[in-house]
Design a protein that fits this description.
about 575 residues, alpha+beta, 25 strands, binds adenosine-5'-diphosphate, binds magnesium ion, MRB1590-like_C, ABC_ATPase_C, ABC_ATPase_put
Length: about 575
């Protein structure tokens, strides 16, 4: 035990009963055996946002297996494991003042736990205790000089991990060597399966036995297995993938192209689509969606009336407005259902989406389809909207973008679907031939060589959008973007509404998006396009890790890495966005 430790403890004891502002002096670095405690930021008063502390252990002391913590992807999974285990350790210590951050069902890159070449580090928030505006020094000493170092030792010292020999596959309390190894391996297997979808011509995969429905509308936990019908693939779409770990997975492959999911109401259509939506992220064991794997760029597209749009080329869908507005660069502060869905779609493609996920429940009908009688009554030149049913094939042939679509209410998409899957009491069947027979279409009619797909002029011609140099500089020079829960980001004086961004997971990921917006503000110079800026931010994140996105050199706060699609989605909803020209 070093002298610094007694310093911190005795300082805190001396501060007991004094006014809160005096706590500032405990900022600094303290050693407790193998654990280094960093007190990076001390809250100004008991009601301010919590103080920031870090604990760090060197690799030589931690002895965490190198083979599980060397590769970048493994470090993400191992940090995810340690975050979950860390919450269990805190629960056992019964120390509520220390906040490590609670992850959801996904295995994601976060700042809560850092694994680097030198060691392991946990970033915590702590509410330093007070009575009124007086420091509770003895309690603060317990938290910072007893429980915090004990937390770090239990979490990071491999020698102290619980590993009863009978623990494998059982309920070994975390952290355990087996738990860590299994977690890292599951993540590797999921990443490998995702990377192999492309070569198999697939944009999605749902493993047999998967549990897709969730416990409730506001819970991401799996429905209890006695209630849920486990997924089974139709034989025609079944694939088996042998992974290099020796693990082999069998399930339904969703091929590139246009796939339509049909079936009666309540038969599980939206549940499948939502599982694919979340299949862009790896999931923890026991989630039920471990083997639901999507194209990592897959993006949900919905109608979102009322949103702002800045300079989108939506002319593939909307043209000849009675107002004469040019829809090749369309802006509005209050988009309609169809316009907002068109904007969401072209923006998703701009952000790199190669697969679109669309549910009739959240679509504008006039954006999706127009029936024969309506086409007869209203001549094409009087109807500004070219419905999605007329664009879904050019989207594939011109842009290489696949679509998975839920449509229980209309047969309109049978003619343009490569595959039709019918759900019957949650069980999928392949019904492509029946659907094609009903509308007199054959698979060859849909092949790119048939000619019917390729109009004289391409439908999608969007030019790159280039934000101005000041596009993301609202007013002050200080930190301007801040997540307010998972639904909103405050940006300067504006609020960005995130509620319709289905693949944005939680507050911590919204905080990641907010940091990304601040980073983008530095990139935009009036020449760099949106797409280039998004690529730049991804390159930086890949090279430097998530810490690189913040200006901080110590405690970055709790952030989760967002996809570029979600960063773009937030940016596109910013009402102050300005473009060149
Ligand atoms: P649809 O979109 O076809 O109307 P949903 O996907 O909304 O149907 O599902 C309707 C209900 O059935 C939801 O409450 C959902 O949780 C439940 N459900 C969906 N899939 C399953 C399943 N595999 N097993 C049990 N319940 C399910
Ligand atoms: Mg539905």
């Amino acid at each position: 035990m070093s002298s610094r430790q007694s310093n911190l403890a005795s300082t805190l004891h001396t501060l007991d009963g004094r006014s809160y502002g005096n706590l500032k002096q405990i900022r600094g670095r303290y050693t407790f055996g193998p654990v280094t405690v960093f007190i990076d930021r001390v809250q100004a008063d008991p009601f301010a946002s919590p103080s920031k502390v870090r604990v760090r252990v060197d690799r030589a002391d931690a002895k965490v297996p190198l083979e599980l913590t060397t590769e970048r992807a493994d470090r993400i999974a191992a940090a995810d494991y340690l975050l979950r285990a860390g919450n269990e350790v805190l629960a056992k210590l019964d120390q509520r003042a220390l906040i490590l951050g609670r992850p959801g069902q996904e295995i994601l890159e976060r700042t809560n736990i850092l694994i680097d070449d030198a060691g392991l580090e946990a970033r915590l928030l702590v509410n330093l205790p007070a009575r009124g505006r007086r420091i509770l020094g003895h309690q603060a000493a317990d938290i910072l000089t007893r429980d915090l170092p004990e937390f770090a030792e239990r979490l990071f010292l491999f020698d102290r991990w619980s590993d009863a020999p009978a623990g494998r596959g059982g309920n070994t309390p975390a952290p355990s060597a087996h738990g860590l190894a299994d977690h890292v391996q599951l993540h590797r297997d999921q990443l490998e399966l995702r990377s192999r979808l492309g070569e198999a011509g697939l944009i999605g995969f749902i493993g047999n036995g998967a549990i897709l429905p969730r416990k409730s509308g506001d819970s991401d936990l799996p429905m209890t297995s006695s209630d849920a019908v486990a997924f089974t693939s139709p034989p025609e779409l079944e694939h088996t993938v042998d992974l290099s770990s020796g693990h082999s997975v069998t399930g339904m492959g969703i091929p590139r192209g246009v796939t339509v999911i049909v079936g009666g109401g309540y038969h599980g259509k939206s549940t499948i689509l939502r599982a694919l939506e979340r299949g862009v992220y790896p999931h923890i064991a026991g989630d039920g969606r471990e083997w639901v794997i999507s194209d990592p760029t897959a993006t949900s597209i919905r109608a979102e009336d009322g949103r702002a749009v800045t300079g989108d080329d939506i002319s593939a869908f909307i043209n000849n407005l009675p107002s004469g507005t040019d829809t090749r660069s369309f802006s509005t502060t209050n988009a309609s259902g169809s316009t907002s869905q068109a904007a969401n779609l072209v923006e998703a493609i701009e952000a790199g989406a190669r697969t679109l996920l669309i549910d009739e429940d959240t679509s504008a009908t006039n954006f999706m389809i127009r029936d024969e009688r309506m086409r007869a009554l209203i001549p094409a030149e009087r109807e500004p909207i070219t419905p999605f049913v007329d664009r879904v094939r050019p989207l594939l042939t011109e842009q290489g973008v696949s679509t998975v679509l839920v449509a229980g209410g209309s047969s309109a998409f049978f003619e343009v679907a490569d595959h039709v899957i019918a759900l019957d009491a949650y069980v999928p069947r392949e019904v492509t031939n029946q659907a094609h027979d009903l509308v007199g279409v054959t698979a060859t009619d849909l092949s790119p060589d048939s000619g019917s797909d390729s109009p004289a002029a391409p439908a999608f011609t969007a030019a790159p959008r280039v934000p101005t140099a000041k596009a993301l500089r609202p007013s002050s020079k200080t930190k301007t973007a801040r997540a307010k829960g998972s639904d909103r980001i405050q940006f300067g004086r504006e609020f960005i509404d995130l509620i319709a961004i289905a693949q944005l997971i939680d507050t911590q990921q919204a905080a990641g998006v907010a940091e990304a917006l601040e980073y983008l503000a530095e990139i935009f110079d009036g020449r760099t396009s949106l797409t280039e800026a998004l690529a730049e931010i991804e390159d930086m994140l890949d090279a430097e890790g998530l810490d690189g996105i913040t200006g901080h050199r110590d405690h970055p706060g709790h952030l989760t890495r967002p996809r570029r699609q979600e960063i773009a989605a937030a940016l596109n909803r910013y009402r102050g966005l300005n473009l060149e020209r």
